[in-house]
Amino acid sequence: MFSLLPWRGLALAGVSSQSKGNHPLCGATLINSCWVLTAAHCFKRFGRDPSRYVLRLGDYHTEERDDFERSLSPELIVIHRKYHSQGSEYDIALLRLKGTEGNCVAFNPHTNSACLPAPGNKWGKRPAACVITGWGITDSEYSRTLLQAWVPLLPTWKCKKRYGERYTSRMLCAGSLSDRRRVDSCQGDSGGPLVCQGEGGRWVLTGIISWGHGCGDPSFPGVYTRVSRFLRWIDQVTNNPPKI
């Protein structure tokens, strides 16, 4: 990945274990003042107890305190009820931040929420490229700084051809199929955003980094949870969350 910020405002957060040190377990994306969207498989290792995690909003360098970085505590983790830890389907989770209703994170020029896809919206033309973001593995070690990279969104038939029945309509795949340009998400990027530029130049949270076969293999592009298929679930959870 290379460092490039294609949109204004920081919606990305790193989800870290209280016991694992500074490096994020996963990425996550702020979708409103109180809710953060990430991948369900991020909680396989340390479980669903929110007290075990901290979110670092606006983090850039994992070993330094950044100017606009804030550490936030989740009070609730909601994993999609159809997600199973041995599979790849329904790999989506929501974290609610501590704070009064609707007022958990104050937005400013350096912190904002990501835009979700419009209900029923379909790309009139597939975006030429989207952007992935994370602190994942590059050259066999985790990146200390936040990195981003352009990746092309691929048609369904190409994804099906490479992954077969494991790939479903609730997923997207993206990445270069060329040996000359191996750009991909990798371990440590999970839960982070795949954002695509829609009509009018608006950047939309289109996917959640989920799974794949290796990293940077042109035969196996990265697979992402398709956010548009979960808008109703996101709306239900954020407007009527389970009791703590």
Automatic annotation (TrEMBL):
<dbReference type="InterPro" id="IPR001314">
    <property type="entry name" value="Peptidase_S1A"/>
</dbReference>
<dbReference type="GO" id="GO:0005615">
    <property type="term" value="C:extracellular space"/>
</dbReference>
<dbReference type="InterPro" id="IPR043504">
    <property type="entry name" value="Peptidase_S1_PA_chymotrypsin"/>
</dbReference>
<feature type="domain" description="Peptidase S1">
    <location>
        <begin position="1"/>
        <end position="239"/>
    </location>
</feature>
<dbReference type="Pfam" id="PF00089">
    <property type="entry name" value="Trypsin"/>
</dbReference>
<keyword id="KW-0378">Hydrolase</keyword>
<keyword id="KW-1015">Disulfide bond</keyword>
<dbReference type="GO" id="GO:0006508">
    <property type="term" value="P:proteolysis"/>
</dbReference>
<protein>
    <recommendedName>
        <fullName>trypsin</fullName>
        <ecNumber>3.4.21.4</ecNumber>
    </recommendedName>
</protein>
<dbReference type="InterPro" id="IPR050127">
    <property type="entry name" value="Serine_Proteases_S1"/>
</dbReference>
<dbReference type="InterPro" id="IPR001254">
    <property type="entry name" value="Trypsin_dom"/>
</dbReference>
<dbReference type="InterPro" id="IPR009003">
    <property type="entry name" value="Peptidase_S1_PA"/>
</dbReference>
<keyword id="KW-0720">Serine protease</keyword>
<dbReference type="GO" id="GO:0004252">
    <property type="term" value="F:serine-type endopeptidase activity"/>
</dbReference>
<keyword id="KW-0645">Protease</keyword>
<dbReference type="InterPro" id="IPR033116">
    <property type="entry name" value="TRYPSIN_SER"/>
</dbReference>
<dbReference type="InterPro" id="IPR018114">
    <property type="entry name" value="TRYPSIN_HIS"/>
</dbReference>
